[in-house]
Design a protein that fits this description.
Keywords: Signal. With 490 residues, the protein is mainly beta. Helices cover 13% and strands 45% of the residues. The protein contains four helices and 23 strands. It has a 19-stranded antiparallel sheet that branches.
């Protein structure tokens, strides 16, 4: 920036240069000469102003490596999202391009806002750090059941998480989160990773630690981004016995229209080291054969194989059908022990066009039993959809093939309406391959109001049906559940 001292110096030089001419000029010409010198000084000042303005308006490269329109020198960094309708990814979720741009465009110690809590960048662009958090508070009431024990009103914390993520240089990254929702400390995500580029448009990362499954559309979507208060029956029933997490390694390969992942894990974090862990191998691929600024076609498939340890032989399942916070409202297999392993697989088909999205999922799981007993097969399927009446695009992440954190067009805190979405779903679950197994279905209706990128209210109305063969709630039963959530994601 051109200093006031330089401005004054230029004007003084012009005046000194004019002094001999002023001394020799007749009075008649003196006034004209002074006016000419004043005009020259004014022209010089205008030129300096123009030069200074050009320097101040120089664009600063963004993390995507392209100039940000209207950016000014010294402006804060902004990480570019993977789609315009998404919030920017955190340090552990960036691709190599964004990591390289962060390293090559240092602009001093900066703080980047926009996704709940700030992202901190070191002056040299090497270190990046972000606190993480998630608060999901639910209330639920069920009625209409013929069993009094199912007509409950309850409250609960779906998630109460604190954590951090960060990166060092271009390639290394990490993430850690603990959950306190059951009044106990439960480590959820905890990993370190390495990312790199094979060639332009093709990159990979490898994560090692306590990993969240990459399994199905909603099975791969975080609890703070699911379209309904609970995931579909495909995500909750066609699942390894160890659940959504396991300790192991996950390499992932990304290209412009999809990704593929392979996960090999043992058990969840536990204190048992007297016997071998169970072993789970899981793979998923998603592809966007159509991908435009306003629409995407999503195709996906996944599968897993699990070998159970000698102390993990129970295959009993009690699966959510009408809401998470009513423990009496489940579809049950009945007591099932003596399992040696499971194999499951599923498919995904859907996408969005403008503010409308649809997604169909189906899955099948085969549980292997000991003592020569036949395998137990469970099946589930669902069809879900939503429409943003405010015109926002669905928060689809084309890099991961799942839903993510949205970028609201007109947040309420800026005087806008926020983003309002209406949703509907039908889901079905079948455990009747077992003599003691039940089945059930539910067509939830829902609505979400995103106040901004990280705050939302959510309501679900669920008509449910169960037909369990195992006690205590046997036979056909129907009822309704109303649930609501207040959610904040940092």
């Amino acid at each position: 920036m051109i200093s006031p001292l330089l401005r004054g110096g230029c004007a003084a030089l012009a005046l000194i240069a004019a002094t001999p001419a002023l001394a020799q000029a007749p009075d008649a010409d003196l006034a004209a000469l002074v006016r000419a010198q004043a005009a020259e000084i004014a022209a010089l000042k205008t030129r300096l102003d123009r030069l200074e303005g050009t320097a101040a308006a120089a664009p600063v490269p963004t993390f995507a490596g392209t100039p940000a329109p209207g950016a000014q020198a010294g402006a804060p960094r902004t990480t570019q999202p993977f789609a315009p309708q998404l919030a920017p990814p955190g340090p552990a979720d960036r691709d190599v391009e964004r990591a390289i741009a962060a390293r090559d465009n240092p602009s001093g110690v900066t703080t980047e806002w926009g996704a709940g809590l700030p992202v901190f960048h070191s002056a040299d662009g090497v270190y990046t750090f972000k606190p993480r958090g998630r608060i999901l508070t639910d209330v639920s009431t069920s009625f209409g059941s013929k069993y009094k024990g199912r007509n409950l009103t309850t409250t609960g914390m779906r998630a109460l998480r604190l954590g951090l993520e960060g990166a060092v240089g271009t390639h290394f990254f990490y993430q850690f989160e603990s959950d306190f929702s059951e009044n106990e400390v439960d480590v959820v995500t905890a990993f370190v990773g390495w990312r790199n580029r094979l060639r332009p448009g093709l990159d990979y990362d490898v994560r090692a630690g306590h990993l969240f499954n990459d399994r199905g559309f909603e099975g791969s979507t975080g609890s703070d981004s699911t379209p309904f208060l609970e995931r579909t029956t495909v995500a909750t029933a066609i699942i390894p016995q160890r659940g959504f997490y396991g300790i192991g390694i996950m390499p992932r390969l990304f290209w412009k229209t999809g990704h593929v992942s392979l996960t090999v894990t043992g058990d969840r974090i536990d204190g048992t080291q007297a016997v071998s862990d169970s072993r789970t191998a899981l793979a998923r691929v998603h592809w966007n054969p159509i991908k435009t600024d306003r629409g995407v076609l999503h195709v996906g498939a996944w599968g897993f194989d699990e070998s159970l340890s000698s102390v993990a032989g129970s295959l009993t399942r009690n699966t959510v059908i009408g809401g998470r916070f009513n423990g009496a409202l489940r579809v049950s297999t009945g007591t099932l022990t003596g399992g040696t392993g499971t194999t499951g697989y599923g498919v995904e088909l859907g996408g969005y066009r403008g503010p409308l999205w649809l997604m169909a999922e189906a899955g099948r799981r085969k549980a292997r039993l000991d003592a020569g007993r036949p395998d137990f097969v469970s099946e589930a399927w669902s069809v879900s959809g939503g429409f943003f009446i405010t015109g926002d695009l669905p928060p689809y992440n084309p890099r991961l093939g799942s839903f993510g954190q949205p970028k609201v067009l007109k947040p309420t805190f800026d005087g806008g309406p926020g983003a309002i979405e209406l949703t509907a779903r039908y889901e079905n679950l079948d455990y009747t391959d077992l003599v003691t197994g039940g089945d059930g279905w539910a067509p939830p209706l829902g609505g979400k109001w995103y106040l901004n990128n990280f705050t939302r209210f959510q309501v679900n109305a669920i008509q449910w049906h169960t037909d369990n063969r195992a006690r205590p709630y046997t036979g056909g039963d129907d009822g309704q559940t109303l649930s609501a959530r207040v959610g904040v994601t940092f």
